[in-house]
C-alpha cells in the first residue's frame, strides 16, 4: 500500500471518529439546553401569581357586596316592618335605602370588573400552562431521539477505533508522526485528496512535479499552500 494511501486510510478512521465526537458534543449541548422550557415555566409561574392575586381581589369584592347586601336587607326590614312610625325616621330610612342601593351598583360593577380580570388571568395562566406542557413534551421526545443517536454514535466511535487500531497494528506506518503533527496544525485533516491537479482542501493548483510525486506509492507530496499530504483521488 502506498505511503499516502496508508495515511489516507488512517485519516478516514480519524475523520469518522472526529465527526461522531463533534456530533456527540452537539447532542450534549442540546440535551443540556433547557432555556426554552425554563422561560416557559417562568411565564407560567408569573401568570399563576397574577391569577392568585386576581382571585383574592374577586373574593374581597364578593365579601364587600355580600356585606353591603346584608345592610340593605336590614334597612328594608326596618323600613317595612312597621316598627318605625315616625315620619322623619321613615324618611331617613328611605334615603338610606336609596343611598345603599346606589352604592350597591358601584360595588357590583367593581365585582364584575374583578370577574373579568380574573377570567383574563385564568386564560393567560391556561395558555402559559399549555405552552409549557407542549414544550416539555416536545423536549422529552427530542431527548429520546437524541439519546438514541448519541448511543449509535458512541458505538460507531468504538467500532472505528477498533478498526483503526487493527489497521495500525497490521501496517508499518513510518510517516505516522508526520501525519499526527499535521492533524494538530491543519484542523484535523492531515491528508487531502488531489482532484484534477487541485487540492480538495484549499483549492490550490498543484504543480505537475508535485502532482507526479503524489501519485507515487513510495513518496509523500504536500500541498504547497496548505501543507497537507496529497493523495490522488
Can you give me a brief rundown of this structure?
The protein is built from five helices and three strands; from the N terminus they run H-H-H-H-E-E-H-E.
How is this fold's topology laid out?
Layout (H helix, E strand, L loop, with lengths): L2 H30 L2 H46 L6 H84 L5 H10 L5 E5 L2 E2 L8 H7 L14 E4 L1
Parallel strand pairs: 1-3
Antiparallel strand pairs: 1-2
Helix pairs in contact: 1-3, 2-3
Notable features of this structure?
three-stranded mixed sheet, 3 strands, 2 domains, 5% strand, mainly alpha, 233 residues, 5 helices, Helix Hairpins
Task: Give a verbal description of the structure.
Helix 1 runs antiparallel to helix 3 and helix 2 runs antiparallel to helix 3 (87-170). The chain contains 5 helices and 3 strands; from the N terminus they run H-H-H-H-E-E-H-E. The two termini are 15 Å apart. With 233 residues, it is mainly alpha-helical. The protein has 2 domains: 34-170, Orthogonal Bundle (Helix Hairpins), CATH 1.10.287.1700; 174-232, no CATH class.
Percent strand equals under 5%
Mean pLDDT: 96
Order of helices and strands: HHHHEEHE
Q: CATH topology of the largest domain, anyone?
A: Helix Hairpins
For the secondary structure, the number of strands is: 3
Count of alpha and pi helical runs: 5
Rg, Å, rounded: 41 Å
